[in-house]
Amino acid sequence: MNNALRIQAIDALLPQTQCGKCGHPGCKPYAEGIAQGEAINKCPPGGTATIHALSRLLQVPELPLELPAVPAQIAFIREAECIGCTKCIQACPVDAIVGAAKLMHTVITDECTGCELCVAPCPVDCIDIIALPAEQADAQRQRADQFRSRHQAHQARLARDEARRLADRAARAQPTQAQAQSNAGSPPQAPQQAVGDDAQTRYKRLKIDAAMAKVALTKAEKQLAAHGTVELQHQVESLRQAAEQAQRELDAAQPAQASAPSAGEAALKQAKIALAMRRAELGKAERQGLDDSQLQPLRQALADAEQALHSAEAASGKPLPNLVRTDKAPVDRQLRDLKTELAYARADLQRLERRQTADTATLEQARQRLANAEQRVHDYQPQ
User: Fold this and answer.
1) Which contacts qualify for 310-319: CB closer than 8 Å, 24 or more apart?
2) Where along the chain is composition biased (Basic and acidic residues) (predicted)?
3) pLDDT reading at 367 higher than 70
């Protein structure tokens, strides 16, 4: 048997999860390593069955698994938590995840190999790995040829995309003859800033990118600590470089810090805070029903805080605000309590109606409570 046929026969016995737990970027590279003398016990998804098949094919002794066996499994995205970042789509080796940027993603169950490569890049940790029952596990193992074909199609698509990017980059890098002639003898000009490119907006975007890169790195480091494969080591190193690059770009885009406020502006800010606190203290005391003798000091403190604010505004040098004072009617506490009871009664009835186990007596009692609350609000006459 020549080497190509030998590699093909070995690859046919592997589960085609393309998970990288063997230390190779896929099942075919591991098959090539086995053909060159590498150990046959590095495939956790294949388990002892794969080791037994490889041992019979290659006429070599069976070895215990190097890592714990991984059962047949699939990925599941908690769609309500998905933010549509596309990180999992990019990581999937068989294109088993569908979705679009800023839209919900989902896993095609029959195409998922359970490789777990989508878990680490997810910035919101909304992907679960679910073990399959025996019947579905057998069906997944029988789809190994399908997984191989999808991985090959995935690799071909990446190669086409890369070739297209290189071609576009080369086309942009070479100016046309007309542009070269028109630029001949002209002084160099500074590149123009893109329309609508706001420095603050760009800084916020870079800050988000840096945070997501740190989260992805942390998750990958946890995966590496759990499994310790060469593939995960490469992934962690790549994510660490991406996080460092994102942090460098963020530091370079740091916006200029605003000048420190003047003493007058600082005093004005403190006066506003003091006024808000005095107003809150008076409002709390009024709600507790304190008498006038207890409320009078709080009213005086509020008046003093208002006067201090006016003085701080005059001393700050800032133009005075154009205030329009309106008289607000006092809150009718009794009417507010009646409306609150009405809202609670309505919510409790809706909750019981959604339940399948609510008995008729309980429902009737909740309906009567709601009717009474509505009637009290309707009949209320302000004093």
Assistant:
1) 311/271, 312/264, 312/267, 312/268, 312/270, 312/271, 313/268, 313/271, 315/264, 315/267, 315/268, 316/262, 316/264, 316/265, 316/267, 316/268, 317/262, 317/264, 318/264, 318/265, 318/268
2) 158-171
3) yes
Query: Which among 152, 165, 83 is positioned nearest to 124, based on CA atoms?
Result: 83
Rounded distance between C-alpha atoms, residue 166 and residue 147, angstroms: 29
Name all contacts of 49-52 with Cβ < 8 Å and 24+ positions apart: 50/13, 50/14, 50/15
Choose which CATH entry (3.65.10.10, 3.30.40.10, 3.30.300.30, 1.10.15.40) describes domain 3-58: 1.10.15.40
Query: pLDDT per residue over 185-211, tens digit each?
Result: 555 554 444 444 467 778 888 888 888
Identify residue 54 by its one-letter amino acid code.
L
CA 326 distance to own-chain centroid: 45
As a CATH number, domain 73-145 is: 3.30.70.20
Among residues 4, 6, 22, the alpha carbon closest in space to that of 57 is found at 6
**Phi/psi of residue 123, each to 5°?**
-75, -15
Helix (H, G, I), strand (E, B) or coil at 97: strand
Q: How many Å is the maximal CA-CA distance in the chain?
A: 104
Cα distance between residue 19 and residue 96, in whole Å: 13
Question: Which residues fall within 8 angstroms of residue 348, CB to CB, at 6 or more apart?
Answer: 366, 369
131, β-bridge pairs: 73
**What one-letter code names the amino acid at 301?**
A
Owner of token pair 């940027």: 101
DSSP character at residue 294 = H
User: Which helix (DSSP H) or strand (DSSP E) does residue 75 occupy?
Assistant: strand 73-77
Task: Please write the tens of the pLDDT for every residue from 254-311.
Answer: 765 555 667 778 888 888 888 888 888 888 888 888 888 888 999 999 999 999 988 8
